[in-house]
Amino acid sequence: MYHPAAMKLRKVAAEEPFVLTAMVSLVAAAIWLNVRHGLLRNFFYSTEMLALTHVVTLGFASSIVQGVMQRLAPRSFRIEVGSRRLAFVQCGLYLVGASGMVVHFARERWTGLAWAALLVLLAALLLAWNFRALFGVAWRGEWGARWVAASLAHFVVAAFLGTAFAMLRVYGVGGSMWTAPLLDRLGAHAHVALLGWIGGAIFGYQLKLLPATRASPRCEALRFALVQGGLVGLVACLLAASSVASWFAAAIAAGVALRSVPAITRIGRNLPGLWETVAHGLLLLLAGVGVALVFGWPDAQSPRRYSLELAYGFVALFGWVLLTVMGTSWKLFSTWVWEERFLPEKGVKPIPPVCQLPSKLLRDSSGACLTVGALGVAACIVVESESSPLRFFLALHLLGVLCFVANFVRIARWELLQLEYRPPVRSS
């Protein structure tokens, strides 16, 4: 079991910029969607939608994973970050590149986009190099480390694909290599980024943080092989326009089911992890929809297919990823803030328990609004409903985002403002 309070605290310089960027990006993306809700009623391939998508994938999801990794990976796997100075350089390159990609997508400046993507690729390579000790732990058989190490490799691959597609668009480089249809190439890039990079990191850390996800070594080996092998096969088939991609998607779905079904069945023993468990349910839903899409339902010529693909992507980003981060981060952030702010005062002054730092009301309100909002928006996209229901569910989802960020601020204020804890006065 992971006991962070028992380990020596070492803050990494790059941790806080990543986490703060993630929070700002999440709020910006949710507001953007509420203001420009018409984006969800049109064909999803547009420069504005690409800009918005990268606000979420790069600004929020990738940033929060990198920020958490700076502290959690060394403590979970007993490794040292290669260089704290390099971590800061990597953070700077990543934030400049990611923000440049979003701006250039929005302004349709393709040359600037290509060079910004190159900065993100360089940042991904530096991150993998700085955490190279993780690959040694993975080689020695630690399954959590294997998932996270694989996620770093997928991050590099996703950044390479994005850069290669941008270079093809601007300079025509790789025209003989990238011959698959545009949407297939985008699908390959998206699945490497979301399932390989973000999902792999989530799966690895959940083995440390969420006991309900653990399994025997033999079962874990099967889950790992199905997801990783299926993902590599799926991406290769999409890039090669192969017709056997469906079977690799089925392998991924089987691996996901072997992870998520046991976690869902143990919900009665994991009520504090309720929203993480709900996220497992969303992941199972996504696996089923993904298999249906890759097996050709709805038909590729059907307008309903594009609606389902858009809903699939929305639930993946704004449902599964966001709910998983929300369900886990309130425990991590409250523990880390408690260690930095109150652990030195233990035995000297009255200090609060860790559980008092976050708000249960904000946590549950966020989880409920995010879940209902994401599923409601997805349903509106699929049935092509009128704008009023769509706007209602987007507003509900935004409320969930604001509750999540408010809970983060509530936790962080103890360290940022150095507030003095005053124990409640007991009435006689």
Account of the protein in words:
With 428 residues, the chain is mainly α. The chain has 2 domains: 12-209, Cytochrome c oxidase-like, subunit I domain (Cytochrome C Oxidase, Chain A, Up-down Bundle); 270-415, no CATH class. 75% of the residues lie in helices and 0% in strands.
- SS-based class: mainly alpha
The helix tally amounts to: 13
Mean pLDDT: 91
Any guess at the CATH architecture of the largest domain?
A: Up-down Bundle
Distance between the termini: 40 Å
Rg of Cα set: 21 Å
The sequence of SSEs as H and E is HHHHHHHHHHHHH
Short overview:
This protein has 428 residues and is mostly helical. Helices cover 75% and strands 0% of the residues.
